[in-house]
Specification:
By secondary structure, this protein is an alpha+beta fold. The protein has helices at about 5-15, 50-60, 60-70; strands spanning about 25-35, 35-45, 45-50. About 15% of the residues are buried.
């Protein structure tokens, strides 16, 4: 294998471990929820989800909070959930 390809693979592995290098600014996800499928989007520092709970005005839901955990340290700080974590 070409040494430059090997170097790129090694760099990619290192980048994958250094999540603080990555910041999402826009994202669109199809989320298979327990009660149906939902479209979750992230733009700038705002979430949106098509589920009833989010649409009721809470500003967060199980789907957005799950994605916050998956994308830990890769979202702007302002994007964190407005709901309180359970004790």
């Amino acid at each position: 294998m070409n040494s430059s390809v090997v170097g790129k693979i090694e760099k990619a592995k290192r980048y994958a471990l250094e999540r603080d290098r990555i910041r999402f600014t826009n994202l669109s996800v199809d989320f298979a929820g327990e009660n149906g499928d939902h479209k979750v989007t992230f733009s700038g520092d705002k979430w949106h989800c098509t589920c009833d709970f989010f649409e009721a005005g809470y500003g967060a839901c199980a789907h957005t909070m799950a994605l916050e955990r998956v994308l830990e340290r890769m979202l702007p700080m302002a994007a964190s959930s407005q709901l309180l974590e359970p004790a």
